[in-house]
Description:
- Chain A has 266 residues and is α+β, with helices and mostly antiparallel strands.
- Chain A has helices at 8-15, 21-33, 35-55, 65-71, 74-82, 87-98, 100-113, 120-132, 146-157, 243-265; strands at residues 141-142, 172-179, 186-192, 198-205, 213-220, 223-230, 233-239.
- In chain A, strands 1-2-3-4-7-6-5 form a 7-stranded antiparallel sheet, sandwiched between helices.
- Chain B has 2 domains: 9-90, RNA polymerase sigma factor, region 2, helix turn helix motif (Rna Polymerase Sigma Factor, Chain: A, Orthogonal Bundle), CATH 1.10.1740; 99-177, Orthogonal Bundle (Arc Repressor Mutant, subunit A).
- Chain B is built from 9 helices and no strands.
- Chain B has helices spanning 11-29, 32-48, 59-80, 84-88, 108-120, 123-134, 139-146, 150-168, 176-180.
Amino acid sequence: MNVLPVTDADLNAYVDGQLAESRLAAVEEALVRDPSLAARVAQAKGHNAALHDALDPWLAESIPERLITAATGPAHGARRKSRRWLAPAFAAAAMLVVGLGVGWFARDVDLERAGTPTTFTRQAALTHVLYASDVNRPVEVWAAEEKRLVTWLSKRLGFAVNAPDLNSTGYALVGGRLVAGHQNPTALFMYENADKQRLSLQVRKQWVDGGEVAFRYAVENGIGVFYWIEDNCSYALSGNLDRAQLLAVGRVVYGQLAALESAQRK
Amino acid sequence: MRSASDPPLPHPELLAAIPRLRRYARVLTGDANRADDLVQDTLARAWEKRRLWAAGSDLRAWLFTIMHNVFVNQRALARRDQMQVSLDAGGEGSEAWQIPVRAAQYTRVELAELVQHVRRLPVDQREVLLLAAVEELRYEEIAVALSIPIGTVMSRLSRARAKLRLAFADGTTSPSGLKVVK
């Protein structure tokens, strides 16, 4: 043998997807040659996957208040405790000072702590569940009248909205509706795939200039929500999908909206 | 204006890290409440030590480092107080182990059994296995987080997996599904 023998460390790295490329051929050859080694690797991979299955659902649990306070820092927490009624003012001031993306997420937390019932993501998830679970009437205007739907929603929201075409991801437009937002009305587009799984895209105007925010992901009551801000509009894509699937659809939506926008600018 | 004394820790990233810290802490401590205490202490410590965080570096890996240190200190204290039992054993019927399985491939029983085996690993091996298999940290990051040489990471990982292998080779209790899945 001219290559180094395969070690335990190689096998573990292979299982965890951390094997150096230079060792890959040697390890794979060893696995083919030795079925007991292959079984061992398969078992360890199975354990990795099973641990995720067992422990990942914990990620979706709501976070206790005390941990949110701890994460926002000692000074921040103390101040809030003593002058709770000022929290929205602090949040607003923080927005003005810090501006941009960082403040956006923190603002959601501030709003929530100040007793405002919803954050955009929570609201998006609740709205999604409410309408996606409605078998007969998930939307007000069906996809057959897409043009009328888009015109109507654009008029009500005060800016041009579009229903992205998600057919490439297996989701077809069901239709849309107008939903009440915390500050501004929200447009909701509902999509469905062959397995009757539904996704919704919600769009609304930001009520403060939140700048631009990269994709963020949250899980609200088991519903995954991808959200981002672009051009003063917030977008939330919600569905009972895992993170990777939702992100894939999110990228398609984002790509189409960006393409549309650059076309409109020309 | 932002003053110079403003903390450099980004709130959104800290908040976003909480679910994973809680998950890790729960398997580490074996108890949901104690896990949240550990997360809370970790976050408080992160704020105290915030100047030591190199902005732009991986915040999550740094938080795992802090959590490890807090955990080790607490265990040392507990041991001094003759209370080590509560940190390393028991708690198996506690709230943390009501595993909310979404499981396509495994039954709740099979998963619970696997988690129990992981729980019974010595804490050194448990930490490395969880950080590699569940938190998907690079081995180099694990070495930094636990302040051990990378060779030690590898040997602990080997021993942890050997123990799981043994546990499931043990015939009767072996959930067959866990063996064959690729």
